[in-house]
Design a protein that fits this description.
CATH class: Alpha Beta
Largest sheet: 6 strands, mixed
Structural class: alpha+beta
Order of helices and strands: HEEEHEHEE
Number of domains: 1
Strand content: 35-45%
Distance between the termini: 36 Å
Oligomer: single chain
Strand order of the largest sheet: 1-2-3-4-6-5
CATH topology: Aminopeptidase
Number of helices: 3
CATH superfamily: Gcn5-related N-acetyltransferase (GNAT)
Helix content: 25-40%
Shape: globular
Length: about 130
């Protein structure tokens, strides 16, 4: 968490963040940037997308995914990729509704608190 906080306090051209708010209240945020793993040429990674539970299923997540997709296209990228916790059905549904598809790649990481998390990769390719 400290590494993420440090990154957020010193933005670079390698990543960008947007927030979604209503009447001054933060609903969620999205961060995209250069892939933090070995990726194919022309890839932009969706690093994080979080929406406050009070705003689930109200369009904030869909709007933030749309912003990430638009950013990838405006940069002339070939694809947007992300990793999603396999058990997060709500997030998977959001990504799939935005046209992202599972790539078949999986990885297991030690998540917060040392609990192992299985993640699956999603991508959406663009015709440039």
């Amino acid at each position: 968490m400290e590494a993420l906080a440090a990154k957020l306090q010193s933005p670079t051209p390698s990543w960008r963040a947007w927030v979604c708010e209503s009447n001054g209240a933060l609903q969620g945020f999205v961060i995209v940037g250069e892939p933090r793993y070995k990726a194919r040429l022309g890839t932009l990674e969706l690093w994080a997308l979080n929406v406050h539970p009070h705003h689930w299923r109200l369009g904030a997540g869909r709007q933030l995914v749309r912003v990430a997709l638009q950013e990838a296209q405006s940069q002339g990228r070939r694809r947007l990729e992300l990793w999603c916790i396999d058990a997060n059905v709500r997030a998977a549904s959001l990504y799939e509704s935005a046209g992202l598809v599972r790539t078949g790649e999986m990885r297991t990481n030690a998540g917060f608190g040392g609990h192992r998390l299985t993640e699956v990769a999603y991508e959406r390719a663009f015709k440039n």
